[in-house]
C-alpha cells in the first residue's frame, strides 16, 4: 500500500478495507492532492482481489467540508483549459468510485458539503448520523455541482436534486434518509456500533456474488425491459450457479452449514 498525505487506507484481516479521508485539521476538505491520492487508493483497492468491500469514512468531526478554500482560490486564477484538467481529475475519481467492482459503504458524520455529496452518491450504500449536515453549496459561491450531478441525481432523484442544487439548503441525516442519500441514519453516539453491524452483515455474503450482483444491477440500470437485458439476466444466474462460490453456497444451504466464506463459529 502507498503512503498518503491526505488519506489512510487500512485493510482489515476479515477481508475489507476502510479508506479514511484524513485532513482532519481542514475538515477533510478536498484539494488536488487528496483527489489524486483517492484515485491511487481506489486503484489499489480495485487490484486487491482479497477485498470483499470498501468502507469510506472521514477522520474527526466532519466527513468532508467540500472543497479546500486555498485550492478554490488557486482554481479561480486558472484559465479554462487548466480548470478543465482539474474537472477531469475530479470526474475520474467519481467514476472510478462508482465503478468499483466491490460494494462500497460511506459513513457520514458532521458536514458533507459540495463534492462530498458526490463521494457519498457514488457509493452503493451510505449511513450517517442524524445530526449530519448535507449541502449542495455550489450556487452560493457562483458555481454548479457539475461533475457530481449525475451521481447525485441517481442517488436522490431528479426532483430532489433540483431543489437542493438550486436552493443550497442544508438538510440533516433524517432528511438524507428520506430522499435516499442515506440508507439509514442513527444518533451520533450509535454510529460506530452500527458500522460494525453493517460490516458483520456484509461479511456473511459471498464475495463473488456481491461482485456479480453489482455488475448485474449496473447492467439493469433503471429496469427498462429489453430482449438484451433478459438474455443478460438469464446468463448471469446461470454463470453464478456454476461458479465455485455459487456451488459452495447451494451445498452449504442444503447441508445446513455455514458456507466457506463465513467465519466459522468457535467450538465450545
Percentage of residues in helical conformation = 40-55%
The termini sit apart by 38 Å
| CATH hierarchy class name of the largest domain | Alpha Beta
CATH architectural type of the largest domain: Alpha-Beta Complex
CATH topology of the largest domain: 2-enoyl-CoA Hydratase, Chain A, domain 1
Q: Structural class per helix/strand content?
A: alpha/beta
Overall pLDDT score: 93
Oligomeric nature of the chains: single chain
> What number of structural domains do the residues give?
2
Within CATH, the superfamily of the largest domain carries the name 2-enoyl-CoA Hydratase, Chain A, domain 1
The arrangement of helices and strands along the chain is EEHEHHEEHEEHHEHEHHHH
Contiguous uncertain segments of 5+ residues: none
Strand content: 5-15%
- Which geometry do the CA atoms define? globular
Strand segment tally: 9
Biggest β-sheet, characterized? 6 strands, mixed
Computed CA radius of gyration, to the nearest angstrom: 20 Å
Output the strand order for the largest sheet. 1-2-3-4-6-9
Please give the count of helices: 11
